[in-house]
Amino acid sequence: MKDKTTENSEVSTPSSKALSRRAALKGLVGTVTAVGFMGKYSMAQAQTGKAASGAAASSGATSIIEMPAWELSQSIHAKKVSVKEVMTAYLDQIDKVNSKVNAIVALQDRDGLMKQAEESDKALAAGKSGGWMHGFPQAIKDLEDTKGIVSSKGCPIFKDYVPTQDSFMVQRMKAAGIIITGKTNTPEFGYGSHTYNPVYGATGNPYDPSKSAGGSSGGAACSLAMRLQPVADGSDFMGSLRNPAGWCNVFGFRPSWGRVPAPGGELFMNQFGINGPMGRSIPDMALLLNTQSGYTSSAPQSLADDSRLRALTPANVRDQMKADQKGKRIAWLGDWDGYLAMEPEVLEVCKNGLDAFTAMGLKVETIKPPIDGQKLWDGCWLPHRHFCATSLKALAEDPEKRKLLKPEAIFEYEGGKNYTGQQMYEASAMRSDWYRKVQELFEKYDYIAVPTAQMFPFDKEWHWPKEVAGRKMDTYHRWMEIVTPWTLCGSPVVAVPVGFSKAGLSMGIQIIGKPRNDFEVLQFAYMYELATDIVRKNPPKII
């Protein structure tokens, strides 16, 4: 829920620490463009892997905006479609439906975007590809700095802030060929799994625009469901790649800590906020993860490159993602044996996913909670959550700026003052115990499964749900407690949609994998996608 701001433990006005961050980023460009195959990507690579008949593989999509990203990339490089045609199709779709949901904000001028598309076509005609995402129209989550484009973080303090440098991840995505169309909406500083802010307003749900799209990557998830961009970047502290994916009937992936580096101010203590990919298909997410991931010395805890990710191309990704799942074992936690307040229909809909797992040849077993949930929340989660909000000091301690902060931000910052160094050590020791308990589960099970949320999308005019299933919620994020244990353990987590409520609202399941088994978790999710085809079969009616 709280994402990029706390991931880097650095929040300040554009004139202070943000400038030093941008200065540091200037020295990273060489590292960014050298990673993997993102910068140098040939048309031969794009077209490798054609069917025996000589025809490129097809998803069966009937329009540009319905094409999965892997197919769009191949079609652009094979000159079946031009970048101008792709840009026109997506901008037309934005014009048609974005006003219904408010997913993309800070939309850039059409003429300027079309000019960039034309330049991309000229480069391709000269045999120069920018990368596998050459010419992709992409809106970037509004917690990321984008050069020359307002990056408000959903906060009035930054409503006119125009960075002079891209964030590290945006640099990597640009090195893969994207054209930035705008930003995706997010709650202020990413606080709260409900996308609304005083700068741009609220983002509606693609299946009912009067409801929430989740957050903080709500704009990203909604933009995918509404076919406003091919793939999307997001970030996740408290379920921000998971809850909105479940609510918008798309896929979201929280990678292992260190898989997607985010160089910033404080580099060692905050291990919770993580950037990651979202998509309408797992192969698309895997390709974007490849672009986002990769070791850099600027993020000392970043993981070494995964050779399997690095080998992925639009032509081979579907084959590489396939892996037999028969006989794998899944531990199902549900509502933590009644500890978590949960709307009854949530578990009913999640049964669709469990049944699909069983039909895939997996063994699903309901288990008892491996730790006392209340103790984990009070003694481990809240101290870490509050501690990371110390990055807000420059704003929270300035009387005039403090007036512009949302209550949730102030709540988190003030909460951080209540813990001593000894208490933070004890919280870390509890987190260590929790990590060990999760590893014990992985000695018996291959994956752990839990719902992506404890309730279905609520009225987007609410600030947050005050109660769930008759139980009062004592904080603005207590209703999303179900995601917190998996943030704390650092494992890769994929969110897969599993079905709809009687009211037509979407729900998902989180699949938690063993540490650093990002590739294996994505392979599991792809086999689920092939077995259910749930995203393609259930587009929003309003698109």
Please explain how this structure is put together.
With 543 residues, the chain is an alpha+beta fold. 38% of the residues lie in helices and 13% in strands. It starts with a helix and ends in a 6-residue tail after the last helix. The model is unreliable at 2-39 and 49-55 (pLDDT under 50). InterPro entries: Amidase, Amidase_dom, AS_sf, TAT_signal. It holds the Pfam family Amidase. Residues 85-522 form the Amidase domain. This is Amidase.
Helices and strands in order:
Blueprint: H1 4-7, H2 17-26, H3 29-34, H4 43-47, H5 69-77, H6 83-101, E1 104-105, H7 110-125, E2 137-141, H8 168-175, E3 179-184, E4 196-197, E5 201-202, E6 204-205, E7 208-212, H9 218-225, E8 231-236, H10 243-248, E9 251-254, E10 274-279, H11 282-292, H12 307-310, H13 317-321, E11 329-332, H14 344-359, E12 363-366, H15 373-388, H16 393-396, H17 399-402, H18 407-415, H19 421-444, E13 447-451, E14 467-468, E15 471-472, H20 484-489, E16 493-500, E17 506-512, H21 518-532, H22 534-537
Parallel strand pairs: 2-3, 11-12, 11-13
Antiparallel strand pairs: 1-3, 4-5, 6-7, 8-10, 9-10, 9-16, 13-17, 14-15, 16-17
Helix pairs in contact: 6-7, 11-21, 15-18, 15-19
